[in-house]
Write a structure and sequence with these properties.
Strand 4 and strand 5 form a beta hairpin. The chain folds into two domains: about 160 residues, no CATH class; about 130 residues, no CATH class. By secondary structure, it is an alpha+beta fold.
């Protein structure tokens, strides 16, 4: 079984070498730490070779975490979780958790808001070529740990960075709704999403970082050029993200005109079908621009009057 998992992980890593890099984020590879600036002494990492262990400790005063792990067993239908942890504040047990993770995971301590009390980050992986990473944050507030679940996210999930060097961490990720929407996964380039830790929670502050948005927009354009000149010019998934990114920068009209001039009119019906809430096919849009406009309205990038 160990050799099987090792071979599967190597195969997956080779597959993920074809991943897109979005604004420095690895869109596909989950085997990338989400807290790159975390001191290794404040981090417990798990991969496909990690044996079972009990009560490994990491500590960053005044918080301490005890972590236990056993490799995921595909032959046992156990949803209780193979990664367990106890969180202490001033040596007093305050919170416990149990999660399922497959061949990869991290538990770490990192200060998000420069208040000298670190947050606990529990990062797990569901298994699969792309999906999904789940990040849970524990923040000390009002003499107890407040749990913040960032949910399941595709493509590595995102990472924590201090984008403006103010001591507060931003969670840099992308809008998962664009993946597969108008193209294959590898031909998708979703727009940026940036959350920051304010008022004891994460708030969407994407438009507050225009320089970062511009850098990613340039990467989108470069990616479009590469794909449009390739043997398989699957560009509509990139152009969908490009228009959304231009909207975030306040440049909707310019982005829309670029899309109209460059979209693939000969591509199949990817993204054109319309489904009801029960997943039943209702009809289809006549073309990619019409489908994209409806999608951007649905996702809140546009209003119906634009």
């Amino acid at each position: 079984m160990k050799n099987y998992l090792k071979n599967q992980s190597k195969l997956l890593t080779n597959l993920l070498s074809f991943s897109l890099m979005i604004g420095g984020l690895n869109l596909i590879n989950p085997f990338v730490t989400s807290a790159q600036e975390t001191n290794q002494n404040n981090l417990i990492s798990i991969d496909y070779e990690t044996p079972a262990f009990d009560n490994q400790m990491i500590e960053l005063d005044p918080i301490k975490i005890s972590v236990s792990y056993k490799p995921y067993d595909y032959n046992i239908d156990d949803e209780s979780g193979n990664l367990t942890y106890d969180i202490y504040y001033d040596n007093q047990l305050q919170s416990s958790g149990q999660e399922i993770t497959v061949n990869w995971g991290e538990v770490s301590l990192q200060n998000f808001n420069n208040d000298n009390i670190p947050e606990v980050i529990v990062d797990t992986f569901s298994g699969g070529a792309h999906c999904c990473n789940k990040k849970i944050i524990y923040h000390w507030q009002n003499d107890q740990f407040n749990q913040i679940d960032l949910g399941f996210r595709d493509g590595g999930g995102g990472e924590f960075r201090d984008l403006d060097q103010d001591g507060n961490m931003e969670f840099v990720t992308f809008d998962n709704a664009f993946l597969y929407r108008f193209s294959s996964y590898v031909a998708s380039f979703p727009p940026t999403m940036i959350l920051t830790f304010r008022n004891d929670n994460f708030e969407n502050v994407t438009t507050e970082y225009p320089n970062y948005l511009r850098e990613t927009l340039n990467e989108m354009y470069q990616r479009y050029q590469e794909v449009s000149n390739s043997e398989y010019p699957e560009v509509n998934g990139i152009l969908a993200g490009y228009v959304a990114q231009k909207i975030l920068l306040g440049e909707y009209e310019e982005g829309w005109e670029f899309m109209l001039a460059h979209y693939d009119q000969n591509l199949d019906n990817w993204g054109l079908d319309i489904y009801d809430d029960n997943g039943e096919l209702m009809g289809s849009y006549p073309d990619f621009p019409t489908a994209l406009e409806a999608f951007l309205i649905e996702q809140g990038y546009l209003n119906s009057e634009q």
